[in-house]
């Protein structure tokens, strides 16, 4: 009977992973729509040009602020119920944004963009949901598979913009946000089919430590710091790069193509990142990701030609993939099943809170200090995290050696 139950659990876990990949492909398409069009629509609707990028910043802020409430709902209602609610709110947010565009109401459009942040917080947690019922050795591969859905989303989002931006003749881009609402509705039946553990099952599996105790543990501190630096630097550079390219005389089309290659580079390695982590370890692949991000900064400092920008963005994307997936896998080693929800929420709050701050500050720093300064400042941050990863490796080796000697 135990073998039969274990096989059923494994089958459910694999089924959930593929449902989450499909849901990620649909839900992950919302950010490209909001990020690519938020500033353009903002320019159309805002009375003050300096507020044109506010909708994008509010989306990132809404995502960061929603991580903890979303985790509370997952803990009380279960992942499936929380994810279904997130998709419903994602659809409603698209409808509100559409209404704002049609009515020419900037405030309403901003509300829609901010509300989409809750759906974004749910989508970001899919990578953790994929690890709930798999063996620890398979967690990195499960996370990597979910990130493959991001590659599909990177194609779906821009295509929705292209095919729907003129669908509403009297209100440009309104159709794209209506498309965003439709994608969220398409994800609903997939999320409803999830076979997630009951909301109280994790609590029954053990006593949870205080979140402060977990947050002070070396493994958590290093993993979260690596995730913050990987994602934060990526968001910071990606936001500033198009403006820097145009400022250096390159066309808007060339800047858009650079971002497209960057997004593809972010998710394409997900096909094999999990296998690399299984072979070389979480810390090693996380460190490799940070080294690649540093290399992207050095290439950007080497010149201002088109290939410098494009090459830098591609390296940045691959580095983010290794660094972020590796750091996420490291976080999964720091908690017990009873502690899962609150630790995942704390991690995402810290990571995406940093992304929100980065999106607010990148344009201003670019205008005041320049492209070269931005790329120079990333290098010492990466060096600090690499030292932390090296220290954690030595710390664990000493702990293992000490345990072996004691036995």
Automatic annotation (TrEMBL):
Residues 211-407 form the Major facilitator superfamily (MFS) profile domain. The chain crosses the membrane at residues 56-74, 81-100, 106-126, 146-164, 170-194, 219-239, 259-278, 285-304, 310-331, 343-362, 374-394. Keywords: Membrane, Transmembrane, Transmembrane helix. Gene3D superfamilies: MFS general substrate transporter like domains. GO terms for molecular function: transmembrane transporter activity. This is MFS transporter.
């Amino acid at each position: 009977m135990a073998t039969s139950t274990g096989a059923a659990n494994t089958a459910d876990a694999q089924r959930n992973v593929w449902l989450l990949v499909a849901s990620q492909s649909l839900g992950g398409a919302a950010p490209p729509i909001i990020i690519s069009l938020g500033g353009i629509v903002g320019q159309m609707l805002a009375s003050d040009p300096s507020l044109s990028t506010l909708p994008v910043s509010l989306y990132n802020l809404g995502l960061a602020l929603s991580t903890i409430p979303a985790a509370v709902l997952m803990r009380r209602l279960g992942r499936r119920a929380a994810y279904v609610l997130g998709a419903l709110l994602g659809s409603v947010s698209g409808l509100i944004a559409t209404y704002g565009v049609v009515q020419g109401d900037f405030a309403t459009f901003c509300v829609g963009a901010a509300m989409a942040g809750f759906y974004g917080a749910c989508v970001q947690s899919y990578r953790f949901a994929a690890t709930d019922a798999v063996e620890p050795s398979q967690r990195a591969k499960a996370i990597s598979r979910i990130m493959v859905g991001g590659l599909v989303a990177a194609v779906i989002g821009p295509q929705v913009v292209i095919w729907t931006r003129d669908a509403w003749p009297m209100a440009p881009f309104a159709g794209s946000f209506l498309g965003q609402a439709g994608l969220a509705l398409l994800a609903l039946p997939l999320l409803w089919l999830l076979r997630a553990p009951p909301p109280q099952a994790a609590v029954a599996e053990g006593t949870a430590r205080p979140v402060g105790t977990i947050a002070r543990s070396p493994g958590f501190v290093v993993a979260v710091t690596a995730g913050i630096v990987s994602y934060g630097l990526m968001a910071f550079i990606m936001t500033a790069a198009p403006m820097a390219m145009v400022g250096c005389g390159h066309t808007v089309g060339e800047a858009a193509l650079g971002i497209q290659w960057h997004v593809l580079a972010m998710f394409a390695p997900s096909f094999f990142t999990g296998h690399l982590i299984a072979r070389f370890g979480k810390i090693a692949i996380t460190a490799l990701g940070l080294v690649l991000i540093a290399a992207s900064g050095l290439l950007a400092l080497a010149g201002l030609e088109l290939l410098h920008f494009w090459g830098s963005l591609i390296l940045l994307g691959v580095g983010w993939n290794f660094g972020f997936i590796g750091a996420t896998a490291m976080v999964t080693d720091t908690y017990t099943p009873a502690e899962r929800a609150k630790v995942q929420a704390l991690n995402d709050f810290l990571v995406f809170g940093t992304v929100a701050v980065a999106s607010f500050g990148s344009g201003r720093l670019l205008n005041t200090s320049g492209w070269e300064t931005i790329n120079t400042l990333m290098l010492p941050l990466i060096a600090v995290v690499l030292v932390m990863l090296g220290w954690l490796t030595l710390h664990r080796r000493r702990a293992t050696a000490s345990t072996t000697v004691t036995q």
